[in-house]
Amino acid sequence: QELIPRISGSLMFNFETNDAGEISLVKMKFEQAINDPIEFKHEPTTIDVDQAILESYAGDYELSGTEVKVYIKNGNKLYLFVAGQPEYELVATAKHKFSFKTLEGFKVEFIESEAGTFDEIKIIQPNGTFTAKRK
């Protein structure tokens, strides 16, 4: 007797990618009786970041003559702001790496100097990677 039932036929998977080319969604139909496929949305892994580290990221940066502000709001949430755009909440995904909470495929990496300070950030977006230096 089998403990795990076998599925007869074939399963079809539909993978969707975001603007950065990363898989963001998988759709599949497990049963013919169900019209709509079941969807599995990729949620990035998040980590907690110490308050002192968040504070070391905060500051004003310059990107090709444009000011980029990084600041803490609501106690422990890191934000990025560029004039003429909305503020973007950043979500920590790895050491010194963040994703934009509301924009898929957009990321920020804080570059640590040999002295242990953060004097530049890389802004990674679908159309390229841009470096902003601390003012």
Throw out a few tags for this protein.
135 residues; mainly beta; Lipocalin; 8-stranded antiparallel barrel; 1 helix; 5% helix
Structural overview:
- By secondary structure, the protein is mainly beta.
- The protein has two domains: 10-43, no CATH class; 51-134, Lipocalin, CATH 2.40.128.50.
- 5% of the residues lie in helices and 49% in strands.
- The strands form two sheets. The protein has an eight-stranded antiparallel β-barrel. It has a three-stranded antiparallel beta sheet with strand order 1-2-3, with no helix packed on it.
- Strand 4 (59-63) and strand 5 (66-73) form a beta hairpin.
- It starts with 12 loop residues before the first strand and ends with a strand.
Please give the structural blueprint.
Layout: E1 13-17, E2 23-28, E3 38-41, H1 51-57, E4 59-63, E5 66-73, E6 77-82, E7 88-94, E8 97-100, E9 107-112, E10 118-125, E11 128-134
Antiparallel strand pairs: 1-2, 2-3, 4-5, 4-11, 5-6, 6-7, 7-8, 8-9, 9-10, 10-11
Protein name: Peptidase S12 Pab87-related C-terminal domain-containing protein
